[in-house]
Amino acid sequence: MIMSLGPYASFIVTSYAAAALVVAILIGWIATDYRSQTRRLRDLDRSGITRRSGRSAMDRP
To answer: Which residues form a coiled coil?
Structure first.
């Protein structure tokens, strides 16, 4: 199944390639940020800092 894109083929292909590149960059950015946040949380847990959301209602003043 071969489609003829007409005289705008280069524009269409370039647009799809640019969109794919942007999506790939965003996925990479999110993956890098996730690893960074996970590492920071692990370091905080190791240092003894606890999360406020982990406390029960009875622990609050």
So the answer is: none
Distance (Å, whole) CA 46 – CA 4: 60
Average pLDDT across each block of 10 residues of the chain; the chain has 61 residues. List them in order: 82 96 98 96 84 59 54
Looking at residue 20, its pLDDT comes to 98
Sign, Cα dihedral of 31, 35, 38, 40: negative
Q: Which two tokens stand for residue 23?
A: 């999506």
Q: Tell me the C-alpha distance between 42 and 38, whole Å.
A: 6
Q: DSSP state, 1?
A: -
Q: Which residue intervals of 1-61 are DSSP H helices?
A: 9-47
